[in-house]
Write a structure and sequence with these properties.
Layout: E1 15-16, E2 26-31, H1 38-44, E3 49-68, E4 73-94, H2 98-104, E5 108-117, E6 124-131, H3 143-155, H4 160-167, H5 179-184
Antiparallel strand pairs: 1-5, 2-4, 3-4, 3-5, 5-6
Helix pairs in contact: 3-4
Enzyme class: lyase
Keywords: Lyase
EC number: 4.3.2.9
Length: 193
């Protein structure tokens, strides 16, 4: 069987190369941005089932990229940061959803990371995504995007201290419409400061 490898990042951490072949079965996906919200992940990936809350060590949450036209602001990514960590959701998904997840995350490169389940136990190998865009000047997300992330964090019962950290993130005060929020039943930055 021939495998096409997605380029592997050369950094320290718990990453593994990802194969682009499709196999029967399921995989774990670690979400840290808008896909924390069940309604968001299931828009394009109906097989997603909540597995557990997880902690990714050696990384931190950042917002980067030029102004994103879908969300009207910078978007979430993760970067390596020794001694740091972030929280997210581990979704169990059918491998058949990998193409739709890759399409949804087209501004990102897929990697695999080892995530610690909140309830203890062995680390779980998960697919996640790292932003391709080089950091832009304005690294602030729109209030609508931040609202979706915070709503997902609350819905998934991430640790309160981490939710408070998300609520303290400065947004760009974008006042226009964000089309995807209508599909999610989302407000316009209600939970974002």
């Amino acid at each position: 069987m021939k495998y096409n490898l997605i380029p592997k990042f050369l950094c320290v951490g718990q990453k593994h190369a990802i194969h682009s072949h499709q196999m029967a079965g399921e995989f774990n996906y670690f979400a840290f941005g808008s896909n924390l919200l069940k309604e968001r992940i299931r828009l394009n990936n109906p097989s997603a089932v909540f597995k557990t809350v997880g902690k990714l060590q050696g990384y931190k949450l950042e917002f980067s990229g030029p102004d994103n036209t879908r969300w009207h602001g910078a978007v979430a990514t993760i970067t390596e940061a020794i001694g740091d960590s972030l929280w997210g959701v581990i979704w169990q998904m059918d491998r058949a959803d990998i193409p739709s997840l890759d399409l949804q995350e087209r501004g990102y490169d897929p990697i695999e990371v080892d995530v610690l389940p909140q309830d203890g136990g062995e680390p779980l190998q998960c697919r996640t995504y790292v932003g391709k865009a080089k950091p832009g000047d304005d690294k602030r997300p729109s209030p609508q995007y931040l609202d979706v992330i915070i709503r997902g964090a609350i819905q998934s019962k991430l640790p309160q201290e981490y939710i408070n950290k998300l609520k303290s993130i400065e947004h760009n005060n974008y006042k226009g419409n964000v089309a995807i929020t209508a599909e999610l039943g989302s407000g316009n930055g209600i939970t974002a400061k």
